[in-house]
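Lab manual, section 2.4: Encoding a predicted structure.

Procedure: take the sequence of the chain (279 residues), apply the prediction step described in section 2.3, and record the output as C-alpha cells. A sample record is shown.
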Amino acid sequence: MPASWRALSEVDGACVIRVDDAVECARLLVDGYLLLIPLRPDAPLGRYRVHGEDVAARPGRTQLREPGDVHLTLDRRSTTLRVLWLPTAHVAARARELGWREAPRWRVPGVDDAALFAAQQRLHAGLEGAGPFDARGALGQVVTLALEHHGDRRPYGGRGVRRELAAVRDYLTAHLAAAVTLDELAALDGVSKYHLARMFTDAFGVPPHAYQILLRVNAARALLDAGAPIAEASARVGFSDQAHLTRHFKKAFSVTPGQYLRDLAPGPRPRPAARTFNP
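Recorded output:
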C-alpha cells in the first residue's frame, strides 16, 4: 500500500503517516505538530514551501511543522517518508514540563540534526517491527529533542501575521462551509480584492479560497474521527459532493477518506511489511 495511517495508542490523537514509494501529501493546513523524515539515504532532493518561503528537502533532514502552517510540496516526487503527527495538547504539555511558558514554536521549518533524525528512525523502526518496543519512551525522546534543540522560547516566538490578514483567516475559519467571496473578505480590510489576494498568498502560501478548502478538509477529518459518515462530513463542511472532498482529502493526507477510516479503525490489522532502517 503506497500510503497509510496508523494511530499511536500511547498518545490520544497521535498518528504516523507512512508513505512508501509514493507521492506524498501535497497541500495541507497543519493541525498539530508534524515531524517528517525521508527514510532512504538516497532520497530525492526536493522543495517544500511554508510561510511563503521555500524549504529544501534532502536525506537526513527533518521537516518541522507547527499548528497553522500551510505545508506545500512543490515537486510531486515519488518518495518514502514517515510523518509523525502529534496533537497540540501533547506537545504543549511536554513543553511545560521543560519549563516553557509560551506555546511551542519551531525556530526554522527544516533542520539537519543527526540525533533527532536517528531518534525518529528508531521510533519508526520499532513501530514497524515485530518485537516488544517502548513506543512511549521513544516518542518522548523525539519530542524532547525537537523542543530542546529547535524550539523557540522567545515571547511571541515564531512567525507573526499582520492583524488584517489574521482577521481574514479568522473569518474564513468561522465561515468555512459558506461560499465566501473575495469582495466579502476585502471589505474586512478596506483594500482591493486583488491586493488582498496577493497579501494573503504571500503570508500563507495559498490564496483565500484555497485556504478555505484546507480548513474544510481538516473539519471533515475531525467529523470522520467523531464517527460521521463520509457523505455527511462532506456536506457539513461545504463540499459540493463526496468526490470533491475525496480529491482534496487525498492531496492533504495521501489517502482517501475511506482508506483513512479503514486505517484507523479499532481492532487488529495486518502489520505492514517491514522497511529497512539505518539508524
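Check your result against the sample. The mean pLDDT is 89.
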